[in-house]
Specification:
By secondary structure, this protein is α/β, with parallel strands linked by helices. The protein has helices spanning 44-52, 70-78, 91-103, 138-151, 168-178, and strands at 17-23, 26-32, 60-64, 83-88, 109-113, 125-130, 152-163, 181-188, 191-197.
């Protein structure tokens, strides 16, 4: 199987460069590299998730599969009096996310290498955000939903972006089996933003 971004240690040669993006009205500059998800620019699904998600200013937020950081860093700006924990299995993504937090002067973040939520299962969060690693398979994606349910406070919210053709209907059904309230918060260009409340 060819290597992809859902790997602890990408071996593909580095191709470090910066991209500029505007998320929720704020300009960001992100370092990106080969071997990480959506390296040429923030993908449409992540942008739609950032545009749709609702976070309280004091929220404790978890970004699962943070990549080089666009969702988590945008969340940290929204939850300015709270904190965001960003996790990814890919060590190259983690290094980039740390650099990007610094580059964009965002201090209310913690960035950890973690296989899904393994490193944070003993913590609690008000919201979990994920553009899940579809290429890692349905079982892995559903494990994200289960582990997110475990770490969310009662009434906490999971925000998921997933393409219809990549399993949005089955993801929705899985979420309905776990969460007390599930709704489609947004739908555009084949992407669904699903909001699930514990």
């Amino acid at each position: 199987m060819s290597e992809h971004y859902y790997t602890p240690r990408p071996s593909v040669e580095h191709d470090l460069h910066t991209i500029e993006e505007t998320l929720r009205g704020r300009s960001f500059v992100f370092w990106t590299d080969a071997g990480v998800f959506s390296k040429k620019g923030v993908d449409y699904g992540s942008k739609l998730l950032v545009q749709t998600m609702e976070l309280a200013k004091q929220a404790r937020v978890l970004d699962v599969g943070c990549g080089y950081g666009p969702i988590g860093l945008a969340a940290a700006v929204l939850a300015e009096q709270g904190s965001v924990t960003m996790v990814d299995i890919n060590e190259r993504a983690i290094e980039l996310a740390k650099r990007n937090a610094e580059r964009n002067r965002i201090a209310n973040v913690r960035i950890l290498q973690s296989d899904l939520l393994a490193e944070v299962m003993d913590q609690t969060f008000d919201a979990v955000l994920t553009n899940p690693p579809i290429r890692a398979g349905k079982e892995t994606v559903h494990r994200v939903f289960e582990q997110a349910h475990h770490v969310l406070v009662p009434g906490g919210t999971l925000w998921v972006v997933i393409q219809k053709k990549q399993g949005a209907p089955s993801a929705y059904a899985k979420l309905e089996s776990l969460y007390s309230q599930v709704e489609e918060a947004e739908r555009d260009k084949g992407y669904w933003i699903i909001k699930a409340v514990k």
